[in-house]
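Students often ask what a 'structure token' actually looks like in practice. Rather than answer in the abstract, let us consider FAD-dependent oxidoreductase, a protein of 552 residues. Its sequence is given first.
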Amino acid sequence: MSDATPAGRRTSVLVVGAGYAGLTTALFLAWRGIRVTLVERHPDTSVQPKAFGIVHRSMELLRQIPGLAERIAAANVLDFAAEATITIGRDLRDENQFELLVGGDDVMKELASMTPAAFGALPQSKIESVLRATAEENGAELLFSHRLESFEQDAEQVRARVRDLGSGEEFAIEADYLVAADGWQAPVREQLGIGTHGLGELWRCRTILFNADLDELLAGRKALLTYMQNEHFSGLYSYLENAIEVFGVSGAHLLGVNYYPERGDRDEDFTDERCVELIRVATATPDLEVEITDQSTFVIAHRVADEMRRGRVFLAGDAAHVMPQTGGLGGATALQDGHDLAWRLAAVLHGHAGPALLDGYAAERQEIGESTADRQLARLADRMAPHLQGKYPFPPEVPAQWEHLGYRVASAAVPGAERGPETLLEDPAKATAEPGSRAPHVFVDKDGTRISVLDLTGRGHVLFVGSPGSGWLAAAKEAARTLDVPLPAYSLGGDLTDDTGSMLRRYRLEPGAAVLVRPDGYVAWRADEESADAAAEFGRALATVLARTAAG
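Now compare that with the structural description of the same chain:
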């Protein structure tokens, strides 16, 4: 791009890609009043079901937007606790299939005690359509059938050229920041020259949507997925009940077939005739009548970007960390990347935080993304690819609840947070509002209504103190005035009634204590007793948390 590029459009944040990471970034920026433009080369969100479900931590974040969690819950397609099983076998008629429980009443009940959010039992395609609609309702500009052609950046802004794939018109967009959520092929990352590490691409999976009469074969079936290994192929099967109504696709069944480009395999090899043969093998029904309705390809890979930020450009989702699907946390990680970027960018663009706050995105999300990718790779080796055992240093196993709700963060803007692999995960049932921990979910009464403490977080930082007479309240008010930032504050025994003592215990909120919680629900700072000079101490703490000085 030359300096002679004609002047074009202006936005605060340009987002590339309309998957989980891109749509969530755009949604939460628009909800916070930030001008955001998203470009996506496809004409719409995906029609392929892709991943299934939104885990509790992601739903915690989505429910910050009024009505969004209810919108998702109204479209749930199954009882996850009762039906979340995976089987492993040769084909769907294999009498010796191994069954693996990934939901279950015990796990779901324990998760339900730790969060006010419920599991979102929807396919990714349906969730993306809900995120798109909600983002547009909040004012985000989403340009589908538009492709990023090139970009450059300097100390002041990003300048990009975008092509309208319908008209062929090319135009310029100037933005303060660019979020690259452009998928596993990651063209923005490639242009930036950011390297990656990990095992790389392992294989690809051709997903085939089809219709067939499998009522007798599937009678009583509860499994979400069946992994298959036989002499013809390895892959997976999923039943898409009420496909058109629920998933928005024509094709009640999905078969995924693994293939290897390095062996000469190509997408073009999957003719309708070959797909029918593979489906008959998978169902062990040689004369099955089959209608192929759609095909697509996704990559099975373990690849983590060496950097998640370069100047004014940020990587999110698969552009930053591609991971095997085993475990179901790839989409959650992408969605949480988007939420993290949105609150930080909004705070900086509104002038509430200093630009250094953005450094915390890479510092925190890099560790979480890499850990999640490694754990999903370990599950892949266990379930589908024993040949990967010993080829990578897999992390030790932890309970599912830890991975869903127990990740901790550490960066310069979280004073007092411990840093290191041994402190990256904790038992969320025992977390006590330490800096870097996710703030515990407990119920309290506010204005006569029982709510979760987490319902008071979301738009900005929030302060909780141990008594209505706490000196931290005056200190917070003065610091917020000096820094010109909104800072709601709530006192135990004043604004909040804690009849069960749960908040007192889990937050250790004695009369002199104070806990500052970020928009993403992580604890940014705490004090266990009131300082002799609370105003000065809290002013310094808030300035550190917002990457600012008292002068702004």
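One point worth highlighting: The CA atoms of residues 200 and 452 lie 41 Å apart. Ask yourself how you might have guessed this from the sequence alone, and why that guess would often be unreliable.
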